[in-house]
Structure formats: C-alpha cells, structure tokens
Batch of 3 targets.
Target 1
Amino acid sequence: MTRYQKLLVLNLFLLTFVLGTSEFVIVGLLTEVASGLNIAISTAGTLVSAFAISFAIGTPILTAVFSRFAKYPLMLSLIAIFIAGNMMTALSGSYGILLVSRLVTAIVTGVLIALAMSVASESVPPEKRGSAISIIFAGFTIASVVGVPLGTSIGQKGGWHMAFWFTALLGIVSLIASSATIPKGLKGAKSSLKKQIRLFANPRIIIAFFIPAFSIAATYTVYTYLTPILHDVLAVPDRYISLVFLLYGVVSVFSTFIGGKIAANNGIGKLRFMFLVQAVILVSLYVSSRSLAGALVSISLIALLVYVMNSTMQLYFIDLADKHVPSAKDLASSLTPVSVNVGIALGSALGGFVTTSKQLIDVSWTGGLVAVAAAVLTWISYRLDHKTQHSYQQKSSCSGEAIK
C-alpha cells in the first residue's frame, strides 16, 4: 500500500475505535445512568438492546438510501451527526431524550461502519483488502480493551455525562482526520432503493448472512454468561473477574488480525474448518471447567477465534453483490456488522434459555452446536462457489472451442 492508503486505513481504524467506544461504554455505566436518571437498572439496560435493534434495522435501509451520494461529504456529514448524537446524550436529563440520542447514534454508527468498509475495499489494492479490513475491524476490538475502560473510568469519576463528552471529543478528532484522508473521488451508485433491496432476494446472500450470525451467536451463548460461569462454576473471586475479561479482550485483538490472514486467500474454504475448531473449543470449556487453569485456556481460545470470520465475510458480501447486484455494494458492506448484532442477540437469548432450563455450564456445548451450524452454512456457500466457478470454466472452454 502507498503512504496515503496506509493513512486512510489508519483513519478508518480510528473511526471504528471511536464508534465502538461510543457504542459499548454505556455497558460499564448502567448503574450510574440508572442512579442519575432515577430509573431501574433494567430500564437502563434497554438502552443497550435498543441500540443493537436500531443498528440492525436502520443500517441496511439507510445505507441503501445514502449509497447514491458521494462518500466524502456523506461520511463527514454522518460523523458530524454522530458527534451531535453524543453531545445530545451528554446533555440528556431524562430517559426519553437519552433513548432518542442513542437511537440516532446507533443508526449513524451502522452506516459509517458500512461506508468505512466500502471505502477501504475500493481504495486499496485487491491483495491488501483482507489485511486493511481486518485492521479497520480491529478498531472495535481495541475499543473494548482500551476505549471502553477509559470512558467508563471517566464516567465513574466525573459523572456518566462526561463519558459521552469524551466520545464526542473523539468524534471531532475523527472528523478532522477523515476530512484529510477520505478520497474525494468516490462517487455513489445511482440506483433506486427497490433495486438494491433485490440483494436480499438472492439466496446466496441469505445463506452468507447467517454465517457470521451463527458464529458470533455460538460465542455469545457463552460470553454473555461468562461472569456467572467465572463466579459460580470456577469460583473466581470478584476482584479477579475483570482481569479475565481483560485477558479475553487482549486475545480477541489477535483474532481480528488472524481473520485478515485467512481472508487473503480462499477465506470461505478455510472458515469451514475454523468453525469446527471453534465448536471443539466451546465444548472443551465443559470439560476444562473442572480446572481453573484449563478453563482459562479454553476462554482464551474462544477469544482467539471470535472475530476470525469478519474480514472474509466482509469481502465475501461485497464480492457477491459485485457479481449479482453491483449497485448494492454499499448495502452489502453493511451486512457483516448487522449480522454480528443479530448473532449477539441470538446468542444472548439462547444462553438465557439454557441457563434457565439446564446447568449453567451447558452453554458451552450449546454454543458448540451453533458453531457447527455456521460450519455447515459455510460449507454450502463454498460448494456453491465451486459449482459456479466450474460452470463458468466450462462455458469459457466451450466458447473457446467454438471460436476455433
């Protein structure tokens, strides 16, 4: 990559770091928010689920609507709205205003992620797309390790409003960097919303959509209930649980970069086996839970594989759209983060069902089964790709013989 391309990728990494910090920092401040607004902790918790639902529903629709606009002014405008949304959150004095501000921020966050991926895929050499996108995705991972704890600390010391003044400030930094690095020549696709929505009528897209959803759901079936597992099953003292989450976050950073290597060559083919490995690791927690050291190894390996599919699936969606609905490439760029949010909701719900009907540790093998489902869908997609490529080669061969 050229120096300019590296600066662009670095800026998009910064953007996803800012977006991730803004999205997840409220999780660490629910108690402060509930106390400050005189609402129940469960009511404060709805802010998290409302964000995820708005993200999943609003992102593909608005990405399709905005895809006709040039990316440079569009991204700067959306970052400005993101800053305003965080300021509105920081100024919120009631649950209603806070909820509206989070919904606005959620929708803008999803569209910006899709545009960041689209800009990267169009601006770097084809052979570097996988590594570039893995770096951009890493912004979210590092946000959970650095940005969220920092924002939480600011909120706990200066009041939860200060945490969102902090994310608004990060947004301003990102706006300045984006104005200097985002290419000004990237035009939008002139296509109607109706034509772009046809992307969802393609069965290949539907199959692919549930691959990252099932993979993330497999992990979140366990991760959502990691704290009670550490406390009740492994007897980890409360003061050390945060260290286990820090370990998980640090290891998950490497997961993103491994995903970039996988995406570089035949990513879908490799993911078939990676998801089976993921299934084995999740199930291993059921056995290793008898030993704290063994369980920590299993938890670390779960983190190591949690994001391995991100880069491959991001490029896969874009390439599928390029073949079947070229005008919907920006919309296709939004599908990985949307699918991931669907997977988080699915995994959390499945884990909740298991914990109420079975033993707590049973979430491990349940998650393993979901990972196997992800492997099966990946195998189906791989076979369809292979079949399509074989058919194309046959047609090319016949055409060549006819010319002769």
Note: The chain is about 85% helix and 0% strand.
Target 2
Amino acid sequence: MNYTLLILGMAVITVLIKAIFFILGDRLSFPAWLNQALSFVPVTVLTAIITPMILAPHGENLELNLHNPQLLASLVAVVVCLLGRRQLLTIAAGLLSFFLFQWIFTG
C-alpha cells in the first residue's frame, strides 16, 4: 500500500511539473545562465548512470583492473571519440571492444 501511494504521489508531482511548462509555454522564460546550465543536464545524467556501471560492474567494489571489460571498452571509446569525433564510430568501437574483451576474459 505504501509503495502504491509513493508511486502515485511521484507520478502526480511529475505530471504537475511538466504540465506547468506546457500550460505556460512561451510566457515562461529562463535567464541565460539557467539555460546554459540546463544544457549540461543530459550529459550529467548519462555520466551519473554510466560511470558506476563502468567502475563497479557487479555493484559492490570498484574494479579498476585490466580484467574489467567495461572499463577497457570505455577507454577504447574515449580514444576513438577523441581521435575521430564521430558518434556512431565511437558507439560501434565501444560495443565491439566490450564484446571482444568480455569474450577474452570469459573465454
């Protein structure tokens, strides 16, 4: 029962917050500094989601070693991104290297 009320309450709050922006539309404007700060939100959220999966893939301890395929593949993806600056190439290199490292380590 408590979980149901919690989920319903969060849903109502989320809908109300989003409805404010739809109802007010163009009448609501943010200062330039806030618009600039909001542009960093997607990158920040993705980093917050991905970093724990790379550094602690099993959810307990940090695995900062050469037997962590997630860490090695992310390093490959960073290098490919820095050298190529192509998003699809970076994704493909990261995925391929992850599967390769995982295959090597689990043999």
Note: The mean pLDDT is 94.
Target 3
Amino acid sequence: MDPKIKAAIATIPEAAWVPIDYPNALFDEQAGRWVSDAEIAEITYTAFTSRKNRKVTARLLVRRVKRLNPQAAQGQDELFATYRYHAIFTDNPFILIQAEQQHRDHAIIDQVNADLIDGPLAHLPSGVFTANAVWLTLAAIAHNLLRATGTLASAFHAKARGAALRRHLIDVPARIARHGRGHIDVHLPEHWPWQHARMNAFDATHHPPSARAA
C-alpha cells in the first residue's frame, strides 16, 4: 500500500464496488475482529514504472472492509464510512469475484506453507524418497493436531503461528515428581502466562479422573 497504490485506489468510482459475503468469517488482525462481508473492485494499474523496460500493466484487485468507529457505542456515530484496503496486483484472467477469492485462498495456503517451513519441513529433503514421504505425512498430521490444540486453548492461540503454539503449549519445561504406587505429578512453571490456555486444551481432550473409593 505505497502512495501510488493508494492514489490508484482513490480513482475507483463508488459504483464500481461489488459486495461479497464470505462463506466463513475471516479474522482481521488489523481490526482485531471477525469479518464476514466486504466489497471488491478493480482497476488497471501499471507497476515497476521506475525500472527501465520492466513496466507491467495488469489488474489491481482491491478489497475494502469498513472500519468500525470504536466510539459509536457512546453515541458518536460516523458522518461517513471509512475503509481499510487490501490490494492484489495480478494478471488472473477470471472474473473479479473468482479472481479475488482465488488469491484469498492462496494467501491462506501460503500461511500454512510458511508455518510448515518454519517447523518440520525445515528438515527436508533427505536423500531417501520414502523417508521424505513419511516425514511429509507426519508433518501434515502434526500441523493439523497443533492447529486443533490451539483452537481448544484460546482465541489467541486459534490464530497464532505454529512457532508460538509450540512455544506456549508444547515445548513447556516441567519437573516430574514420582509418588508411591507409580503416581506421577508434572509440575509446570510458576506464574506461567499460558497456564489457562494449556489447561483449556487439556480439559477439552481428557476425561475427568474417575472417583476412587474411599
């Protein structure tokens, strides 16, 4: 969103904006809220004009989400709507709604790939094809389990990066204490900020201990 992109977006007429509804709400990190609707438009844009013989003219797809007034609940209603804009420069030949949806799906996939590359895929490839196949399968299973654990832990961990989930919920230092009759206690760090999140995930995946006879 450099000044040239902003200037191009400003030239889009109001009648060009098309409303879209998301099948599933998306979490907007900038706004800190879930978004279920937006508007999209497009304009022809020429990029890389500062580079000799490198100019490219293609489509600039723009999605805008209405910026909510945090003081509206106090009676300070807005005089006019304000928006936040997300732009995509592409030569995608599909119609506007299809092209925007495809690029939005690509962004989700890219985020998953970045998480995997920052984790288990950092150890690939090896010199053995079958070992690569097994490791990739295990990486996918671990990724899905980690995302599910984050969803059970808290709203923050439901959208956190894989590295944060491993640091907060998995790679936790603990002291093991053994008692009589094979009973084992795990002592977690004191004043640990992610205690409640980890216990949320633990309680959701474990049945309460059975009552013992006196």
Note: The first strand starts at residue 18 and ends at 28.
